[in-house]
Amino acid sequence: MARNLLAALLLFVALVVQVTVLNRLPVKVVPDLVLLVVIVLAAMRGPLDGAVIGFCAGLAADILPPAGELLGQYALVMCLTGFVAGRLAAHAPLFATLVCAVLAPALTVGVRALVADDGVGWTYLRTVWPWVALCNLIAAPVVLWAVRRLLRERRRQTVLVPSWRRI
After folding, report:
1. Does some domain include residue 165?
2. Burial, 163: exposed, middle or buried (Cβ in 10 Å; 0-12, 13-18, 19+)?
3. Model confidence over 43-84: pLDDT tens digits?
4. How far apart are CA 4 and CA 96, in angstroms?
5. Distance CA 97, CA 50 (A)
6. How many structural domains compose the chain?
7. pLDDT tens, 79-135?
8. Enclosing domain of residue 62
9. Less packed terminus of the chain by CB within 10 Å, N or C?
């Protein structure tokens, strides 16, 4: 229970930082902090939990302003990304994080091109996606380290009790 609350709090903080700080920076492309946190949580917990975490985080990101797209686009992308990250992380967690951090923005563009008719397509994919993927690649190891450090499970240390002899 505490583990789930801590993960929900971490996603909430990532959403707030993304909307209030990162999206307001005077640069054109910023890393997707919510996506990276979902990927790391999915890598730590597995594919089913990753899909649920991704869906919830994506739905929250769809609801938060500026919510100009259709409701559920980002939830679909995050759900699929969480599942894939959880599936790949059993073999190589850092590789899963990096692959999902690069491919998820392309999936976002693809879903948006299929659902919405706002001109997002190949031109956008060729011009913006490499920069978003690069920002995510640079930020992914830092987010991976920070989330794992925050959510690491405390191992119980075995206490050596001195044996006492019967006299």
Report:
1. no
2. exposed
3. 999 999 999 999 999 999 989 877 666 888 889 999 999 999
4. 22
5. 12
6. 1
7. 999 999 999 998 888 888 889 999 998 898 888 888 776 666 777 778 888 899 999
8. 2-151
9. C
Residue 143 neighbours by CB distance under 10 Å: 21
In a domain, 68, yes or no: yes
Taking the CA atoms of residue 65, residue 50, residue 127 and residue 26 in that order, the dihedral angle to the nearest 10 degrees is 40
11-17 own/partner pairs: CB under 8 Å, 24+ apart? 11/37, 11/38, 11/41, 11/53, 11/56, 11/57, 11/60, 12/60, 14/57, 15/57, 15/60, 15/61, 15/64
CATH number for the domain spanning 104: value is 1.10.1760.20
Q: Looking at residue 22, what DSSP letter applies?
A: G
Angstrom distance (rounded) from CA 35 to CA 65: 17
Instruction: Write down the pTM of the prediction.
Output: 0.85
Q: Is residue 156, in this structure, part of any structural domain at all?
A: no
Beta strands, E only, the chain: none
